[in-house]
Amino acid sequence: TVRRLFFAMAFAKYFLVALLLATAVLAQNEDKRSIDEFEVDQGPFIVVTTAQDDGDEFRDTVEDDGSAGIIGGERDIFYVIEGVTEANQVFSCGVSSGQFSEAAPPTNVQGTLGFVNIQWDGVDGVADTVDPNGLGGIDLTSNLANQFYARGSADFDFDTEIRVYSGNVNDYCTGTFTVPGGTSDADFFINYNEFSDVGAGCDFTSVGAIQLLINVRANLDLNLEFLRTFGPIPASPSPSPSPSPSPSSDPSATRTPTASPSQTP
Question: Which pLDDT does position 134 carry in this prediction?
Answer without folding.
Answer: 97
